[in-house]
Each structure stands twice: as structure tokens, then as C-alpha cells.
Amino acid sequence: MEKKVRPRKLRLVKRVCRWTAIALLSGLLLLAIGYLTPRKWVYAPKTGCDFQVCVSNVGVHTNIIVPIREEIFDWHQHLGLRELTSNGAEGYKYLSFGWGDRLFYMATPTPEDFKLSNALDALFTPGPSVMYVEKLVDIPQNFEVKCVKVDRDDYLNLMAYIKGSFQIDKQQRAIIAGDGYNLNANFYEAIGSYSILKSCNAWTAAALRTADLNTPLWDGLSSAILLHLKGSCN
Questions:
Q1: What is the C-alpha to C-alpha distance for residues 174 and 79, in angstroms, rounded to an integer?
Q2: Which residue has the higher pLDDT, 47 or 133?
Q3: b/e string for 203-219 if b means 16 or more Cβ within 10 A?
Q4: Is the pLDDT of residue 138 over 60?
Q5: pLDDT for the residue numbered 146
Q6: Which long-range contacts (CB under 8 A, 24 or more apart) does 192-197 make?
Q7: Higher confidence at residue 19 or residue 228?
Q8: Is the pLDDT of residue 88 over 60?
Q9: What average pLDDT does range 138-154 have in this prediction?
Q10: Alpha-carbon distance 14 to 18, whole Å?
Q11: Closest by alpha carbon to 100, among 123, 67, 71?
């Protein structure tokens, strides 16, 4: 009797392993298709493309980089930018915006500070989020950056989305959550919860779509964001 039971168990184990492998391979295939597939295939040409939007890839995370001041939108009116520098020095032209999980983002200034427990907590336990804002003198050259042009309406739509991601106080000012990774950056309290379904790159992609810019079908990886970044002005 015992000899008959063991082959049944073995067949069951093999069947479970086979279907698990099929499920994993199918999932990887879907992710690959989502990575390579753009959300838009057709572009209607636009004019008046006078505004630049850049996206930086800092490894696994993307940031949106825009001018501090444009004739149609000035971030001085919405953020305490002087607080971003230790001496209030002038000369800064751009702001870099990134959204992410509060605990993981603030506790991981460098790859060496990465903790698996924080990463898993961010992915599977939705928690409060923060916006990371850094003041820049110029477009960074030390990591991958891609820039595109947009028109007035699309630029304002993007600014509205970024602005709407901040929590604000009674004076309609963004709320500082903590110091940034350097003297020219701060963390701000943000709206929304980070999770495996809403990552930092998903926030970037959603923001770019408000400016009618193309994004991948699956926006979980930073490289996919830059791969598909394109608009009707390009």
C-alpha cells in the first residue's frame, strides 16, 4: 500500500512544480511584453513646444527634472526653496522631483544603505509617502538623463500633477518631512501610499502621461520609463 501512495505524491509534486514554472514563465513574459510595449503608438504633431521636461534614471528610481522658474509657472510660489540650501545661494536653475515610500526613501541615501526588510515593507505594506526635491545648478551628467519638449498646456498639466502630490499646510505650503541626502534637498510629506502596485516609477509615469508623454505599458522599471519617453514634439 505504501508503494502505491508514494508515486501518487511524486506525480502531484511534479504537477505542482510544472504549473508553478509555467506560471512564473508566463508572468515574466507578460512583464517583458509590458516593458517593451508603449502605451501610445500614434503621435499627433504639436507646435509651441517651448518647455523642457527631463527624466533621470538613478538606478532603480526615476526623477522628473524641470526648471525652477518658467514664465508660466514658478516653483518659488509653492515651495520654500531657500530652505533647500544652507546659505540661500542663487544660481540654481532646476528642481528634481521623486516620489516614494517614506521609510525606505529616507533611510536609503546610497545603495550601501539598502535593507531588504525596508524594501519588502515598502512593497507589501502600504505606508506614508514622501516627495524628494533637490535643487540643481544644471542637468546632471553623472547618470542617465533624457529630455523632451512639451507645449504650454502639457507643461502646466505636469506641474499641476507634481504640485498635487504634496501634502500642504493651512498656509498652502508644502510640509517638510526631513533633510535630504545633501544640503540642497529636502523630503516633503506626500499624498498616496507606496506599494508593489504603485511604485516610484509608476508615479513618474503617471505624471508624464498628464503631459501627453509616452510611457511603457508596465512602468515598474526605471529603464523602461526612459526607453519609451517620447512626445508629439519630438
A1: 6
A2: 133
A3: bbbebbbbbbbbbbbbb
A4: yes
A5: 96
A6: 192/99, 192/129, 192/165, 193/126, 193/127, 193/128, 193/129, 194/99, 194/100, 194/101, 194/102, 194/104, 194/122, 194/126, 194/127, 194/129, 195/122, 195/123, 195/124, 195/126, 196/123, 196/124
A7: 228
A8: no
A9: 94
A10: 6
A11: 123
**Nearest Cα to Cα of residue 97 among 217, 3, 185:** 185
In angstroms, the CA 82 to CA 73 distance is 17
Cα-based angle 157, 78, 168 (whole degrees, multiple of 5): 95
pLDDT category at 164 given cuts 50, 70, 90 is: very high
- State the pTM of this model: 0.84
d(CA 116, CA 120): 6
Concatenated DSSP letters for 155-180? HHHHHHHHHTTB-B-TTS-BPEEEE-
Q: What is the mean pLDDT of residues 4-20?
A: 66
Residue 68 and residue 81 in contact, taking contact as beta carbons nearer than 8 Å: yes
DSSP state of 53: E
Indicate the domain borders of the chain: 51-228
The x, y and z cell numbers of residue 72, run together, are 508660466
> Which amino acid, one-letter code, is at 218?
W
